[in-house]
């Protein structure tokens, strides 16, 4: 495994793992999962040198953090655990809440569920339009001072919000969707991060599985799968977007690699400050994904991908209207 540094000094494996799909209840369901296999995934990943694991309070809610806490027991000291706060959680999830009070409440709950006394990387999950970012980051900074959090970050902020937040307390990382499938952060957000030495943690780096090429039609998605409501997986857009997968497969053929490995290697080639976190729940998928750390795309590979998949190549928005209203604020 190769390692990279987020921000100034947070060393992590070059490929992290998104844990959301490891528990099949709650938001963002990607078909059924099996907890026994998911535990094996985490333990095998640790054996292979993966140190970076991502979860969130809202996944479930709560049950994903509890799962991660069980999975990392006995290994905590050598791992980097990231989690996220920022929603009102009661009987269900009802909008954002990044008030200082909720920041502190969420931190205490995450510490308890993860079975740890510190969080390596604590993200605001979505920017709250009703709470100034300075207040939220101020509360996060207090948690750093108290030793409960070691590094802080934001998920899906705008360039302007990054600048305001970083002025209060240095951000170690920003988590945003970024891949050959989604390039929207390139014009403004990515430069704002690079200028401040902030790391990028791309989530959904495989386009929610599309770029891996294993799904060849909507009919293969099980009932209840989140992607049946994903605009880019819609009947209108699915076949159009298969052309992107074909271009990735062509490069994969040159290296005897998988399409997923090429898509992840493309991200790694965009800069040393980038650490993707593909979501996994199966051993074979995990081992394939982390193999991307050893795949070096050539200048010709990158040029061919750029020609075949320009930033506007994908058909359809990445989210529905409600979810889109919550990003890049």
Characterise the protein shown here.
By secondary structure, this protein is an alpha/beta fold. The chain has a single domain, classed as TIM Barrel, CATH 3.20.20. The protein has 11 helices and 11 strands. The strands form 3 sheets. Strands 3-4-5-8-9-10-11 form a 7-stranded parallel β-sheet, with helices on one face. A two-stranded antiparallel sheet has the order 1-2. α5 (159-168) packs parallel to α6 and α7 packs across α8 (259-268). The longest helix is centred in the last third of the chain and has 18 residues, at 238-255. It is globular, with a radius of gyration of 19 Å. It starts with a strand and ends in a 5-residue tail after the last helix. The mean pLDDT is 96.
What is shown here, in short?
This protein has 329 residues and is α/β, with parallel strands linked by helices.
| CATH homologous superfamily caption | NADP-dependent oxidoreductase domain
CATH class, named: Alpha Beta
Strand content: 5-15%
Query: What's the helical proportion of residues?
Result: 25-40%
